[in-house]
Amino acid sequence: MPKKIKYRYNRNKYVNAAFDFIKTIVFVMVVVAFLFTYFIRDVNVVGSSMYDTLHAGDKVILTTFNYTPKSGDIVAINTENLIEKRIIKRVIATEGQLIDIDYKTGDVYVDGIIISEDYLYSKTNKPDDAFELPCVVPENHIFVMGDNRLISFDSRDTGIGLVSCDDIIGKAQFVFYPFDRVKYIY
């Protein structure tokens, strides 16, 4: 006669597995929170001042760790002390560079050289309350503009002017939503 095999329910095995699973989930949450606090952030694009590069409703990942702005970068800026919101703009000039704009032709000059702006959606126009140009960008500041210059509220206007590097939230790296617009930003 064959022997009966008894299966023992090992409660400790399942408790340990559940505890290990919970520890893993907590660890992953702590790592994600750490990354999103010190290294990366996400931001929602509001408005169309960066059209066609960024669209209203795009969700963008920013890198924040040890970032130094360079011309051409797209950055998120905390302007709550100026206009009570955050904005996303393109860095046109950095500290020590001479910035000037010929509003008749729409040409932007950095250090006396017309910059190539193949990302532009609309011609550079002069705002009603224009920031006085030419000027040399002071230390720890940047000059920013949107890609859709007809509607962009940016450094051309005295309401924004030169932006302190301390107000930069981070550099835009890629669009992660909506899914049909996922792309790396360069």
Characterise this structure.
This protein is α+β, with helices and mostly antiparallel strands. The chain has one domain (42-184): Umud Fragment, subunit A, CATH 2.10.109. The chain is built from one helix and twelve strands; from the N terminus they run H-E-E-E-E-E-E-E-E-E-E-E-E. The chain is elongated and about 105 Å long. The termini are far apart.
Number of helices: 1
How helical, in percent, are the residues?
10-25%
Q: What is Rg?
A: 25 Å
**Structural class by sheet pairing and helices:** alpha+beta
CATH class division: Mainly Beta
**Average pLDDT score:** 90
Q: How is the biggest beta sheet arranged?
A: 8 strands, antiparallel
Count structural domains: 1
Q: Can you count the beta strands?
A: 12
Question: Which term fits the overall shape?
Answer: elongated
CATH fold assignment: Umud Fragment, subunit A
Beta-strand residue percentage: 25-35%
Characteristic key phrases:
single chain; 186 residues; alpha+beta; Umud Fragment, subunit A; eight-stranded antiparallel β-sheet; four-stranded antiparallel β-sheet; 1 helix; 12 strands
Summed up:
By secondary structure, the protein is α+β, with helices and mostly antiparallel strands. Helix content is 15%, strand content 30%.
Q: How would you summarize the topology of this molecule?
A:
Blueprint: H1 11-38, E1 40-44, E2 59-63, E3 74-78, E4 86-94, E5 98-102, E6 107-110, E7 113-114, E8 135-136, E9 141-145, E10 163-164, E11 168-177, E12 183-184
Antiparallel strand pairs: 1-2, 2-11, 3-4, 3-11, 4-9, 5-6, 5-8, 6-7, 9-10, 11-12
